[in-house]
Amino acid sequence: MFIDMLRNDLIDNNKVYSKNISLMLERIGGIRYNNCYTEAPDTPRSLATFWSGKPPRLNGCDTRLKYPYFFLKDSSFLNTARSNNFKIHVFANPNKLKSGIIPLNFSEIQTISGPAKGGINDFLKTINHQNNTSDFIFIDLSDLHFANDDLAHNYISEIKGIKELSKALQIIEEYRNQMDIDKYFLFSDHGHQYDFERKRSKTVDLLDDNRTNVFLQIWQGEEGLSVDDRLTTVSEFGKSVRAVISGDKKNVVPNSVKNIRIEDHENFDVSVGLPLKVFRHISGDYDVTIDFKGDLKVHRGVCDKSKVIDNSPGLRDFILEYKIFQKYKEMKRVVSPYSNGNRRSSINKFPILKYAYRIFVLLSEPLIFKK
Q1: Which residue in 39, 95, 111, 205 could disulfide with 89, CB within 3.0 to 4.6 Å?
Q2: Residues in CB range of 20: below 8 A, 6 or more apart
Q3: When comparing pLDDT for 272 and 348, which is higher?
Q4: Average pLDDT for residues 203-230, to the nearest whole number?
């Protein structure tokens, strides 16, 4: 169960409007991993870490437009599942499917559906599980993301998203009780910033927990809900799923990690060839974020800034470029004379004159260059 854009701090936060979903997740039971992080807080890169069990720098999906279907270097655990005779069933938004969130050809998927084809209820009706077969069901719930997109990332959009999400989860629970479900995973790929958070935040705030600490709950037959505070990642979760599908492990238990490197772009723009300019490093000794300006945000502990920069690929050059850029802006404010010493006259400081001059140039140009 992939819940797009669910902030981990939204669960059990005593907000009235999130109480129902918190109680529903509590009834599902299992183990909730409170310190699970995505190594890349957007859908294509985070899902690529899930499918591959590898961080972005190793799996080929290292920027915001590199979707798993097109850029994932190694085979995903879905290929392992197919090799082990699993039937693959996918419910997802059609546009997200076309963009490439699933690293399989549609012909390799047993059942494929989305909201436009009758919703989650009709999708679950079509799955005909047989006792001698294994099924892997991937359900993409984008309700929270859609509500935030529609209503501008605030508490109203969150209330709407949770309401729609709760309806979908309720339908799934009804079917789960009827089907022979062995393991049930619920996870998010990233969180989000509310509009008020975004407006007052700096670049170095982009990798705070509100975007990087993801929701992960795994049920494997347990009674009740327990909490595990180990430090882990979405890629470790994916690696553990692969081990179970391949038969190497009985239960999905993401490994504890000592170090996490989270990478992101400098803003929320979606464009070709965006460089990585913000890095967060989490370890036993410290938890810090550093950006291309050289700004360091310490979440916990003490660290060597130079060491953090060295462990953030390309960042040292970006910091130097940024310093040069600041000097360039200062230089542009100082009007140097012509080579012969004559003083320059600039109209750029006077907006009205600047636009009047441009109009004059446009009108006089045909006369000056008339043949």
Answers
A1: 111
A2: 162, 166
A3: 272
A4: 97
